[in-house]
């Protein structure tokens, strides 16, 4: 039984499966008991983010809060009396959704996209919105919990409203998409009443 160490997570591969088959019932149950008593190995959780480039600074968007990332919407229907940050409406999976210029919404200043524009589909309960944003880098930013705690901050030129920030990473705000979607919906309801 000492040939194979107790592993924190067991995967049955050739040699290990063969080893288990050779154990007596008593040795098998002793081995199973050792596995059950082994404390779990601490794993770090890794989050994936998209790095958005706004004229006033950078922000990270958690991929877990997005339904889909698409090329920028080409066809937008303009609505009269829309807020200046609403680009229009477009179709997504058979439904009409509002498309919001995320940079303009967050800064309340006109934005001029300079990079790779994408349409981020955000869904909260029964509300689906398209968020138009400029992606600085199409590679995802991977951050684990330990790395986030030890990362030195760099000076960022801007700071979105506090209720829209989930956390920061190296001085870059991580946006709280559910709070942003909720605020947008409330403002749209007021503007169309």
UniProtKB/TrEMBL annotation:
Occurrences of domain CheW-like (ranges): 46-186
Pfam families: CheW
Domain of life according to the entry: Bacteria
SUPFAM superfamilies: CheW-like
GO biological process entries: chemotaxis; signal transduction
The protein's name in its UniProt record: CheW-like domain-containing protein
Native species: Dictyobacter kobayashii
Lineage: Bacteria, Bacillati, Chloroflexota, Ktedonobacteria, Ktedonobacterales
